[in-house]
Structure formats: C-alpha cells, structure tokens
Design goal:
Layout lengths: L2 E4 L9 E5 L6 H13 L2 E7 L8 E2 L6 E2 L2 E6 L4 E6 L8 H14 L3 E9 L10 E6 L2 H7 L9 E4 H13 L3 E8 L6 H16 L6 H5 L1 H17 L6 E4 L5
Parallel strand pairs: 2-7, 2-8, 8-11
Antiparallel strand pairs: 1-3, 3-6, 4-5, 6-7, 9-11, 10-12
Helix pairs in contact: 1-5, 2-4
Keywords: Proteasome
Pfam families: PAC2 (PF09754)
Protein name: Proteasome assembly chaperone family protein
C-alpha cells in the first residue's frame, strides 16, 4: 500500500498542496518546479507507491540521488509541493490518489490540482483557465473570479484520480483546467496557472519573470521528458471536452 515517508520534520497548519505531476503540456510540472525554487522549499518527504518506477533521480551539480516523487515544503508559506519526475502507472493511480489524499487530509490541508486542456494556442498567446472543486473549494474559485468550465468534460490520469478521491472523502480541493499546447511543454500555460490560481489561492507572490526569461531553455529541457511520456504511452493527466451524446 502507498504511503508518505517523512524524513525532515516540518510543521504545517492547514497547508496548501500544489501538485506537479506529469500531464499534457507539462503545466503542473513546470509550475511546481518554479514555485519550489521561488519559495526555496525544502525536500522533506517521499511518496512510496507500488505503481511508481524504481528509479533514482539526480540533479546537475549534486552527487545526491532522489526518489522520483517527492514532497517539498515551506513552513513560512504554509505550502507543500508534490514534485514528480515520472508518470504514475495507470494500474496504480487509485492507490496513489488514496495515499496522497490521506496525507493532505491528515494535515488538515487543501489541494490544488491542474491539468492541461489541449487547444490550438499561440506560443505567447493568452491561455484560458477555469476550475472545478470538491469540498469547500468552490468558494475559493468564486472568491478569485475563476469561472467553471464552459463545456462538459472528463479529467483523466493521476490528477483526475486525485480529484475523484478528494470528492469521495470531501477534501477541500480545486482543479484548474488550463488551455495548453498538446504537443510541447508550455511555460506560458504554467505562467497563467501561477498568476491566476496558485498566487491568489495559496496566498503567494511568485514572480514569473525568471520563468518567462528562460522559456526556450525550459521548453528544450522539458521536451525530452515530453517525448519519453509519448513513447511510453499517453497515461498523463489531461482534461478533455466530451460531446453531449458521447
């Protein structure tokens, strides 16, 4: 059974969890990595789940290796970021979602999930952002002028499972759907998510200037990861509109 392993005791009071799993456009991944750097968050926990690959992650300039799905936190900001460098196996998403949701609920926290909505977008064009909610999350969306989806849809993949589990246990959570390039990493969509959802809802003031200044580098760095996801089968999180009669 999946569990969260804590190895650096940070103290949180009703933290906000920001999810950074792999998904279409890598919106959550790009945003989570940027937020971790911006608030100087500390690596304090590991998600252990049978469906996660047994791999070692390493970073440039460091001898250390890390597990593939990790928790970073900032006591000052009451923030926890779920950072992932691998996809979650479709056969194990239920256990993974239960594990993460149980930890957030035990901490009295609120969760923010994000998924890209494949769309035809210009590289520097505006991205629409809409939201859904569980528990008391609807109030947060309304307070910050985030509209509900304009069409029916289905949210699949690991973040879809997380949102479904949040609904089952009545955890306060919001799910943000952001228009994104379906083929390539989309830093512009990540900026829209940070500015219009993460900052106001989590009470942060993360600046996207550095992210925008390195858009091409980020696209190049993350593009190989996107190719690996496509080659291994499309099990990533995504939101998709559905026709009324489908």
């Amino acid at each position: 059974m999946g569990h969260v392993e804590i190895h650096d005791d940070l103290t949180f009071e009703s933290p906000t969890l920001i999810e950074g799993l792999l998904g279409v456009g890598l919106v959550g991944k790009i945003a989570a990595d940027h937020v971790i750097d911006a608030v100087d968050a500390t690596y304090f926990g590991t998600v252990r789940c049978p469906g996660l690959p047994r791999v070692a992650v390493y970073e440039s300039g460091s001898y250390e290796t890390y597990p593939p799905v990790r928790l970073y936190g900032s006591e000052e900001h009451g923030l926890v970021v779920l950072r992932s460098d691998v996809p979650v196996s479709p056969s194990e998403v239920a256990d993974f979602a239960s594990c993460v949701t149980r930890w957030v609920a035990d901490e009295g926290g609120m969760a923010m999930y994000v998924s890209g909505l494949p769309a035809e977008v210009e590289p520097d064009g505006e991205r629409s952002l809409r939201g859904v909610a569980t528990g008391d999350g609807e109030r947060l969306l309304a307070d910050h002028d985030i509209d509900p989806p304009a069409t029916d849809g289905v949210w699949s993949g690991p973040t879809g499972a997380l949102l479904a589990r949040a609904s089952e246990v009545e955890l306060d959570a919001v799910g943000l759907v952001v228009e994104t390039d379906p083929e390539f990493p989309d830093p512009e969509a990540a900026c829209a998510y940070i500015n219009r959802a993460v900052n106001p809802i989590a009470g942060l003031s993360v600046d996207d200037a550095d992210l925008r200044a390195h858009v091409e580098e980020i696209r190049a760095e993350k593009e190989q990861l996107a190719h690996q996801m496509n080659e291994s089968g499309d099990d990533s999180s995504r939101a998709e509109p559905v026709g009324m009669y489908q």
